[in-house]
Every structure is written in C-alpha cells, then in structure tokens.
TrEMBL record:
Coiled coil: none annotated. Residues 1-32 are annotated as: Disordered. One of its GO terms (molecular function) is 5'-3' RNA exonuclease activity. InterPro entries: PHP_dom (IPR004013), PHP_domain (IPR052018), Pol/His_phosphatase_N (IPR003141), Pol/histidinol_Pase-like (IPR016195). This is Polymerase/histidinol phosphatase N-terminal domain-containing protein. Gene3D superfamilies: 1.10.150.650, Metal-dependent hydrolases (3.20.20.140). Residues 15-32 have a biased composition (Basic residues). The gene is Vigan.01G156100.
Length: 455
C-alpha cells in the first residue's frame, strides 16, 4: 500500500482552463497542503503503515514538500496521480456480534471495497468480533483498532428529568485493553441487563396486543448475542406488526415509548473511567442524539473523556464542534455503520476525516496505547504464564502456532512484535529495554509447548 502524498504533474497552460473547468464540475477545488498538513499526513501515514514501512516512506520519498500534496476545501487529503490512496479511517462500525447485520469479515470486505485503510470495530458492549475482524483484515491490508461502544446512562443527582442513555466509544491498542478481565466483566454485566431489557420490551409489546415471540428476537440476534432494540424491531418487521424499522421505533421503541424499557447500564462517568483504566481512548458517540449534551459533556470531561463525535457523512456539525472546543475535546467521527441499508444509513468510510483531525486523534491515542502495550508485556515479563501470553495474542494481532521452529526466548517475541505496534521513537524507552532483559532467559511456551509466533 502507498500513501496519497503524490506529486502533482505540471499542466500545460493551454489545458489549464479545461482542467479548472473539470474540477468545478466535480465540485470543490484542490489545494496544496500546508506545511502542517504535510507533517500531519506523514505522522498518520507512518502509523498506518507501521508493519509496511516501505509503503509509508515511498509515499513521501518523491513528495517531501507541501507543493506536492493536495487537499480539498475541508482539509481532507485527496489521491492524485496514478496509484494514489487516501488514508481513510472508519472509527464507528458494528457487526453481527451486536446489532449489525453482517459478520466482521463482511464488514471488513465492504470497508476494503470502499477504500478504508483503518477500521475500528465498535460493537455494543462486546469485543467478541475483534479476532475475526483482525484475521479478515490481514487479507486486505486494513489496520484494525480494537474498539467497543459502551451503553451507559447519564443520571444527574436530584434531577431525573435529565436522565438519558449515553454511548461511549472506546479505542484500544493493537493488542487490546489492559486489565481485560475487569473490562470484560463490566461489559458482561451490561449484556446481562440487555437480555432482561429485551425481555421486558417483548412483554410490553405483548400487552399492547402485539404477540411477538421472544424466540423470534433471539433467533435474529444470533447465538450468544445480547438482543437490543434493533433486534426487536427487526422481529416486529418480520412478524408484520410494523412496515419498517423506523416505524417500530417511532411507534413503540423510542426512548420513553410505550414499549421502552431501561437496562442495567452503568453511569456514563463509570464507563469513561473504565475505558481510561484499561488503556483506552474514550469518545462520546453521536452527541446530536442527546437531549442535554452540555451537562453530559461537562461531567464526562471531568471523568476523563478524550473526545466526541462531531463529523458526520454530511459534514461537520458546527454546534458540537464548538462544544468540543469549549471543553478541549478531540473532534472525530464515523459512519456508525450497521449494514441495515436504506437512505438513512451512512456507508462505511463515508465520514472522510481531515488529516489534521486524524493527527490530533493519534497524537492523543498513541501515548495511551504505548503505555498499555508496555503494561501488558510487562505483566508477561513478571509472570510468563499462559494467561499473560494470551493477553498479548488475544485479538489475533499476533498469532501463536504450535510446532515449527520456536523462538529462542521471550525477548525474541518482543523484538518481533514491538515494531508492528510502535514507532522506533516509541520503542526508545528504558522500560521496554528492561522488559526485554527480563525475558532474555524466558522460553516462550503455551501449555508447556514451545511455540512459533507469527504476525
């Protein structure tokens, strides 16, 4: 893969008017990148292509100056020249492991078709789909950010009228969260509450003379998936009680609606603190859906919130951009893709984030992820157990294959993996050197069997 910092070919003056006309017909104009945008693009590109360093360097070897790169009116980098590529991030997507319609593999395949280079799978209250997403992404050269969208509730003390559901996006390093067991238990409790909530919704629908079957909802959700309102809505459509999903929500399932039921979600502040505690970046999802965004943002910022969604497929929302600025929050966005289709759903990769936005996101995220990676491998160095080795390989960013020629020691494992996760500058850390020294005499085993680690 190559970046999109391509050289603009000189155009003969006789064709200048013709080319300008073509640009106008396509909508918008192309501008040369500023110096800051060029540096931002290189910073982002270097991270995207950590495991393909030649691709990253080649994209800039022939275009080191601002004059050789272009962006559109919104500061989004554009491909120019043969073989040019955008660094397209998709930071909000769902699969069948929550309320999406497609498997993680199908989501990745569709993302590839749409030109996505980095994808965060952010299923509701579960990270179970991440290993499949990582495995599928290998085939297409897509970088996966392990993520999750946590369901929570904002409940101001003494003011029940302001209580409302809030969703928090969490973004983790390539090897996932620290203290994974704590996070998994936290998410499991939410999923258990989703089961009870969905059952209560079905009971309320039954009382409203809509004899929807619980088994029908569970069949749509799939084995092991905690049903949500979308699964109930799909069952209602299939049973013929409503014409479409929109009608199901508008008539019965909207917040406070006749069939609405609360779950057992944690407080939004607790969700943010858990994300920070487990080495993640916490971002408020779709704030435009909130009734009272200002007090929510204020409270969550105090809890450690890093950013909020501001960019949508139809552009940046000025009011929420100003709110993010007021509280010093990152401004990002994603399609919130579920695969349900229809004109109301944004396609994967449709939120084309400006290069400076991507730079700011990674500038905050990478130190957090670097510390998380250090903590995870440090645990393995302190206690080279199967469980601590599994923490490194949990999401499949590093695979362990039994048999073959084993690594000579744990230091080889770290030397092999760190360049895939961190930049050379991030690896220049005394802590990593100390960890490698501890692992120099540790044999890499799983279940007592020496293994070959493959990435």
């Amino acid at each position: 893969m190559t970046g999109d910092g391509c050289v603009i070919q000189a155009t003969p003056s006789s064709n200048k008017k013709k080319n300008n006309k073509k640009k106008k017909n396509k909508g918008g104009t192309k501008k040369k990148m500023t110096h800051d945008q060029v540096l931002a693009f290189k910073f982002v590109s270097d991270w995207v292509f950590l495991d393909h360093p030649s691709a990253s360097s080649s994209s800039f070897s022939s275009s080191p100056s601002a004059a050789s790169c272009v962006v559109d009116d919104f500061g989004v980098q554009k491909p120019v020249g043969r073989g040019g590529e955008k660094l397209l991030f998709e930071l909000h997507s769902h699969s069948k492991f929550s309320d999406g319609f497609f498997s993680p593999s199908k989501v990745i395949e569709r993302a590839h078709i749409n030109g996505v280079k980095v994808l965060a799978l952010t299923d509701h209250d579960t990270m179970a789909g991440i290993p499949e997403a990582v495995e599928s992404a290998r085939k297409y050269g897509i970088k996966i950010i392990p993520g999750v969208e946590i369901s929570s509730i904002f409940s101001p003390r003494g003011d029940s009228e302001l209580e409302e559901p809030v969703h928090i996006l969490a973004y983790y390093s390539s090897i996932g969260p620290t203290r994974f067991e704590e996070l998994d238990k936290f998410l499991s409790n939410i999923r258990d509450g989703r089961f009870l909530r969905a059952k209560n919704i079905v009971l309320k629908l039954n009382k409203l003379k809509l004899p929807l079957k619980w088994e029908h909802v569970c069949r749509i959700a799939g084995k092991g998936v905690a049903p949500g309102r979308l699964h109930v809505a799909r069952a209602m459509v299939e049973a013929g009680y409503v014409e479409n999903l929109r009608q199901a929500f508008a008539r019965y399932l909207f917040d406070g609606g006749p069939a609405y039921s609360k779950g057992s979600e944690p407080l939004a502040e607790e969700a943010v603190k858990m994300i920070c505690h487990t080495g993640g970046v916490a971002v408020l999802a779709h704030p435009w859906a909130l009734k009272h965004p200002v007090p929510i943002v204020r409270r969550l910022k105090e809890a450690g919130l890093h950013g909020m969604e501001v960019h949508k497929s139809d552009g940046k929302l000025a009011a929420y951009s100003e709110l993010a600025d007021a509280y010093g929050l990152l401004k990002i966005g994603g399609s919130d893709y579920h695969g349900r289709g229809g004109h109301n759903e944004s396609e994967l990769g449709s939120v084309n984030l400006p290069v400076l936005v991507l730079h700011d996101f990674l500038k905050v995220a990478r130190p957090i992820w670097c510390n998380a990676i250090r903590e995870i491998i440090e645990c393995y160095a302190e206690e080279p157990s199967d469980s601590n080795l599994a923490a490194i390989t949990r999401f499949g960013s590093t695979r362990i294959l039994k048999g073959g020629s084993p690594l000579s020691c744990g230091q080889d494992l770290i030397d092999h993996c760190l360049p895939l996760w961190l930049s050379s500058q991030e690896m220049e850390n005394a802590d990593f050197e100390a960890i490698k020294l501890k692992l120099s005499n540790v044999s890499v085993t799983q279940g007592g069997i020496q293994v070959l680690v493959e990435t």
